[in-house]
Amino acid sequence: MDLKVNDYTTDDDLTVINVEGEIDVYTAPKLREKLIDLVNKGKYHLLVDMEKVEFLDSTGLGVLVGGLKRVRAHDGSLELVCTQERILKIFRITGLTKVFGIFDSVDDAREHRKKQK
Amino acid sequence: MAPETAMVELTFSPLPAHVRTARLIATAVARRGGVEETLLDEVRLAVGEACSRAVEAHRQQCPEEPVRVELRDGADRFEVVVTDRVPDDDPAGSGVPGTPVDLVELNGDLNLGFAVIAGLADDVDIASTPSGVEITMSWPVKKD
């Protein structure tokens, strides 16, 4: 299955990346390229919506961590939207729930961001 | 009379696209073998992790050699053995000779794959031999 990656930027300068499909060793480079491209375009506050992700492996986790490192170099942020237990479990196993902000919805993430400002 | 342990063996060229195929086959055999539905996601992910590691190791060291996956449907356990043919490969290391470059590039220095396998498989054994690395994982089965 192909990986679909689309993005849009909200009026509060948050770039939401909708990811759909399976993120594995075959498809993860596509997500990595998208994250790099956005950072190169000056988008430093990213929210990856994973609600339509059907599979995620460690390669995908590595790409997300790589993206986080890139945005942090510009004082940015990379957070996630995910409510799927089978995906959340992978973040828990690897301890990455402590690294990423994980929200139930895009609206929740935006609300949290407003409170932080 | 059916054998006590039925086996499905899969060999595939070390291409990332084939990792998904291996995952799907492993999940299908696990389901048929009596692995509980709640564990099938874990089988799928752990097999994918082991195959991803093997594929990247082969691509760097021996792209002509296939990766081998054995799926053993036993009386009490469903066992998966993923074998690569990369000698002196350090399965738990990173940033050392023999470490697959592409996976390091994607994963950084995190080596998350083994953390995921260890966290998901009910029982794991990783053996580094002169002929390659063998990752054996198993899960319980319930036979009707």
TrEMBL record, chain A:
The residues covered by the STAS domain are 4-113
Could you name the domain of life of the organism this protein comes from? Bacteria
The signal sequence is none
Matches recorded under SUPFAM superfamilies: SpoIIaa-like (SSF52091)
Name the protein family. Answer: Belongs to the anti-sigma-factor antagonist family.
Q: What's the protein name? A: Anti-sigma factor antagonist
Q: Which gene encodes it?
A: bldG_2
Automatic annotation (TrEMBL), chain B:
UniProt-listed Gene3D superfamilies: Histidine kinase-like ATPase, C-terminal domain
Protein origin, superkingdom: Bacteria
Question: What GO molecular function annotation could you give as one example from this UniProt entry?
Answer: ATP binding
Q: Which Pfam families match?
A: HATPase_c_2
Keywords assigned by UniProt, alphabetized: ATP-binding, Kinase, Nucleotide-binding, Serine/threonine-protein kinase, Transferase
Domain Histidine kinase/HSP90-like ATPase, chain residue ranges per copy: 12-139
The protein here is known as ATP-binding protein
Please report the organism this UniProt entry assigns to the protein: Actinoallomurus vinaceus
What is the taxonomic lineage of the source species?
A: Bacteria, Bacillati, Actinomycetota, Actinomycetes, Streptosporangiales
